[in-house]
Write a structure and sequence with these properties.
This protein is of the alpha/beta class. Helices cover 36% and strands 18% of the residues. It has an eight-stranded parallel β-sheet. Strands 1-2 form a two-stranded antiparallel sheet. The longest helix is centred in the middle third of the chain and has 16 residues.
Length: 320
């Protein structure tokens, strides 16, 4: 059975493995460019969510940008009868657009964030979310002021129990958010391949009891053992924008951990067990497309890496 951990100083007791829901909304393109992980039908999405509940997962992370609200709609419909038993996280700040160089714009203005959560609540079919997050880190002093004001308003109206920021790799912004006391949690990119958050961000999050949500814990699938240096992602998969050199680099790094695998431990399980070995991480949120992948991920919770294994992992990371 999945273990549960408190999300920082909040009252949320989250399963240490949650579900990232980007892929569940189905195929969406803007100007012929995909913004999703391929197609995914509604029936399969509900199967994934139902199986997640059966396996003890209680936190589900989505965003208004995922399939242009499609992920939120499906998630809300699937969890309608279980609302009091689960935690729903959503995000806002990316606005779909289309130019020759980009498919989204960013907006952390006060009024936009307030309108965004109202639209998310409508799609999710609920009157509150457990965690509302901006989808990227504040870049200017005005951004910091806007999210502080918006978070206060959203909490005061009980539209979100808690608020946080999804910072990706912008760890310095995360440190600033913690020091300013603006967040209950941070969602970060953290995996075997991207572990820089350990050195400065994690100690500060622990000191101030800010919850850490590890996003992309399988490095967009490169820590599943499914891909090699010849991988070409289909046009309907957002990963088709990853360059060949980047693919080769990620595959090479992932292969460096092969000596730590055995008959009872796959690459994805090693990757998630590594994340869960950090006490600062409250939950990680891998996405899946099959119930088999889901079960394999959840079983990672039972793997405990030894100090010697963790040292070997850091030796590998230190050589890059």
């Amino acid at each position: 059975m999945l273990k549960h951990k408190r999300l920082g100083k909040t009252s949320l007791q989250v399963s240490e493995i949650g579900l990232g829901c980007w892929q569940l909304g189905g195929l969406v393109t803007i100007g012929g460019v995909t913004i999703t992980y391929g197609d995914f039908n509604e029936e399969d999405a509900y199967k994934i969510i139902d199986k997640s509940l059966d396996l003890g997962i209680n936190c589900f992370d989505t965003a208004d940008y995922y399939s242009l609200g499609g992920s939120e709609r499906r998630l809300g419909k699937a969890l309608k009868e279980k609302r009091s038993d689960v935690y729903i996280f959503t995000k806002a700040g990316y606005i779909p657009t289309y130019t020759e160089t980009k498919i989204s714009e960013q907006d952390l203005s006060y009024h936009y964030l307030l309108s965004a959560i109202d639209r998310s609540l409508n799609r999710l079919g609920t009157d509150y979310v457990d965690l509302f997050q901006t989808h990227f880190a504040p870049q200017t002093e005005e951004d910091f002021k806007n999210i502080e004001k918006a978070f206060d308003k959203i909490k005061s109206e009980n539209k979100a129990k808690y608020c946080g920021v999804s910072i990706g790799y912008e760890y310095e912004k995360g440190i600033e958010l913690i020091e300013r006391g603006l967040v209950d949690s941070l969602q970060i990119f953290f995996s075997l391949l991207d572990n820089k958050a350990r050195t400065q961000l994690f100690p500060l999050a622990k000191k101030f009891n800010v919850g850490i949500i590890a996003a992309e814990p399988l490095a967009q699938g490169f820590l599943t053992g499914k891909y090699d240096h010849n991988t070409i992602f289909p046009k309907n998969d957002v990963r088709n924008r990853i360059g060949k050199n980047d693919i080769e680099n990620r595959v090479k790094k992932a292969n460096d951990f092969q000596p730590l695998l055995n008959e009872s431990r796959t690459m994805n399980q090693l990757a998630l067990a590594y994340i869960l070995s950090h006490e600062e991480v409250s939950t990680c949120i891998p996405g899946v497309k099959t119930t088999e992948q889901l079960k394999s991920n959840v079983s990672s919770s039972e793997i405990k890496l030894t100090l010697d294994e963790l040292e070997k992992i850091r030796d590998v990371q230190g050589k890059w």
